[in-house]
Design brief:
The structure is a homodimer of 371-residue chains. Chain A is of the alpha/beta class and 371 residues long. Helices cover 41% and strands 15% of the residues of chain A. The model of chain A is unreliable at 1-5 (pLDDT under 50).
């Protein structure tokens, strides 16, 4: 039944995540576990929290690696800010913006979606118009880096409009954190979540979140959705902070990997790291353009982390992806939702964002597209 | 800020979990990740599911390693069976039984707790009397191996009474799965959750669950609590089973570790594995008895996986545990809830359940207790 000691086939992960990770990170992941109340665990956790604050550009005390993946982080952030019956507004021009709305609806919120074209950023004026017309939301949410379209949404203008309307501002930074600059405090982001398996450079299993005092205060006052014990920031705070009361058994090996990845990121330098993502993405798009494969998003809002490119006519989406995986050992992603079959999503994220990897993919693409 | 390549101090984990794991398991954890839609991932997942069915003693198709820890599994199982306003009955004689009740209350259930003395099993007649007196519950829940007291609760009699009352039966098998026999189908367990970091022999991060068709059918019909997108079995089923629709990015490295741990368990043989737990626990309790340290639970309901022992008078609980950790590199656990300061919880679980480890702890205990 099992694979025993058989290793997985080597894969260059250039999809929408997980990305490939460094040897140092997987080595760290394979260290023996320690206990969830071990003083060394809290030392490790504190180091991770300091590092995550740097990546998020925040001084928020409650900045932690939640147990779970990015989607668990999305749900936890909503569950700690939205009460049933609350008005919330979601700015969405892609699959993950729509998911925020979907989860909030499930929690009983009254959700207004400010929709933009998939593959473009949303004009902040649309949000302003919505807030001027409608009832006052408690929360406005937006996606910084839309994984389904490769689009960067500037957050500061949206946060400003949200705050003028008296709302808190929530950001999805899943495909930006560690790959492009995130400045939560400067931009007015009150709460944000991310994932470690994209630009941060870890195997999946943790969702970094940062939560302002304003959000924590609100969470004390409001009638949050029923349930959500595992994601309750108040309960979690008693574990992450002294007196470190037992809540759940945190995944310590995933902490080791995150700690190693953060160390590598700061040893490289964030500016250098962000530049590396831009270089890799630029080389990828240049090479693909020569094969007639062009990006979905215009330059002014295009992400250097997730490259959404339009599948040329007469090309078999699934066949190309299968061949890349099985013949060349390279994973790229297909389109999600209404972009399924229309685009590929190619990640240049974290450890994967490297010119050698880009060259390898371009050579394989050339073969598979017969260009 | 970070520990760079510094390894954690070596720890012999003899607390209530995580347990120490084999070199093979951590080596597997440190393999490079692959993608969440990779055909090899689904092959790996299928192997894990077959292995988990064997551990759970079930043929349930929906037997999967949920992303999260045991507490996430507890919450997911409740969220997929209990609607707000439902009557549920929890059999509780410890901290984790009470937690089931706490989570169900948060979800809006009307909860009746059949309470027993901490350190003893609950008499099934108590459950029968409660069900005869009260309104019909949709669910009866109980803890197979109560991690806070070291007590084994026989499940078959409780399941039978629950079914006679028309209720589904939920079991917490966190501290039993992989360490003592679990026979979900034979005992009439409709849904159960566990954790991988205790008797299964992995680092924490996954919660094995098994769910019968009866539960899945109910989950389709009822008005489940708002929210719980991440834990929704219906959505998860579409990922775990073909057509494998993207839900969230599963923690593949934790899958590697679980696959390796299951392989090791079946290579050892389950009967031999369970016997090893009994041998280790027996040697531990014999040795401790010679120092005047005696078990909380009577022999007829005592677990061989988690040994709850009474702290002798005039012994400083915290000092002994700190010395064991810092001077001897051995972690044991303190008491939870009303047993805090009164007992130690010593795990002989998974890879830790070994006579050499027991000898090492006994020698250290002898030093620290001056016996």
């Amino acid at each position: 039944m099992s694979k025993m000691t058989r290793l997985p086939s080597p894969r260059l992960l250039m999809g929408p995540g997980p990305s490939s990770v460094s040897q140092g990170v997987v080595d760290a992941m394979g260290a023996p576990p320690i206990g969830y109340l071990d003083p060394e665990l809290f030392e490790l956790l504190e180091g991770i929290r300091v590092g995550l604050r740097r990546l998020f550009g925040t001084s928020n005390q409650f900045t932690v690696p939640l147990t779970g993946t990015g989607m668990a982080g999305m749900e936890a952030c909503l569950a700690n800010t939205v009460s049933p019956g609350d008005q919330i507004v979601v700015v969405a021009a892609g699959y993950f913006g729509e998911r925020i709305a979907e989860l909030a609806v499930r929690m009983g919120a009254i959700v207004t979606v400010v929709r933009g074209e998939w593959g473009r950023a949303v004009d902040p004026a649309q949000l302003r118009a919505t807030l001027e017309a409608g009832p006052a939301p408690v929360l406005v949410a937006a996606v910084h880096a839309e994984t389904s379209t490769g689009v960067r949404q500037e957050l500061a203008p949206l946060a400003e409009i949200a705050h003028e309307a008296g709302a808190l501002f929530l950001a999805d930074t899943v495909t930006s954190l560690g790959g492009i600059s995130v400045e939560a405090d400067k931009w007015g982001v009150d709460i944000a979540y991310s994932a470690v398996q994209k630009c941060v450079g870890c195997p999946p299993g943790l969702s970094p979140v940062t939560v302002s005092e304003a959000v924590l205060e609100r969470a004390q006052k409001v009638n949050l959705p029923h349930g959500y014990w595992f994601s309750d920031f108040k309960l979690l705070g008693s574990y992450y902070n002294a007196p470190h009361v037992y809540h759940h058994t945190v995944p310590v090996n995933n902490y080791y990997a995150l700690d190693a990845a953060l160390s590598e990121a700061f040893a490289e330098g964030l500016r250098e790291r962000f530049a590396r993502h831009i270089t890799a993405s630029g080389a990828l798009l240049d090479g693909l353009a020569q094969m007639g494969v062009n990006p979905l998003a215009p330059t002014d809002c295009r992400l250097p982390t997730l490259n959404a490119v339009i599948i040329p006519d007469n090309v078999d989406d699934q066949q190309v992806r299968t061949n890349l995986l099985t013949k060349h050992g390279i994973e790229i992603g297909g389109g999600l939702g209404k972009l399924k079959g229309k685009i590929w999503r190619i990640g240049t994220m974290g450890h994967t964002a490297d010119l050698n990897n880009v060259e390898r993919l371009l050579a394989a693409m050339k073969t598979e597209l017969h260009r």
